[in-house]
Each structure stands twice: as C-alpha cells, then as structure tokens.
Design goal:
about 80 residues; YaeB-like fold; 5-stranded mixed β-sheet; 5 strands
Length: about 80
Amino acid sequence: MRHRFTDWATYQYRESPPATQRAFDRRLVFLLRDLRHPSLRAKKYDKARDIWQARITKGWRFYFSIDGNTYIILSITRHPK
C-alpha cells in the first residue's frame, strides 16, 4: 500500500506538536503494513463517505480513506473527547 496527504492534512501535520508528528510517523508505518494493527485501533468513522479513523495517541486521531492501493490521509486532529 501507498499513501498520500491532502493539503489540509499536510498543514495539520506541520502544525501539530513534534511528539505527535513522531507518533503519527510510527502509526503510518503500521497502517502501510497492516490496517488491523492493534495500536491503530482503526475503524470506519463515516460509512457513507468511506472515511476511517485511527489512533495516533490518546489525544490525537487521523482520518483517512482508501482508494485502490492508496491510503489518503485526510486529517490529523486532536480527539474531541
């Protein structure tokens, strides 16, 4: 699998704290290897639009969609809870 970022996700990544960036980088490797990796806790977030959510840290999540063999990273944001 491959990945690409939307412009919005690129902006959010750059604006996130360095520790969150490092954690995201590790999670991206896990995602590219196995969507079902336990630390991702990946799940369908919006079935109608085919958007997934995965965990970066306890307080951060990223959202992505799948297009063929490419993960499209849509957003990197704080968890609302």
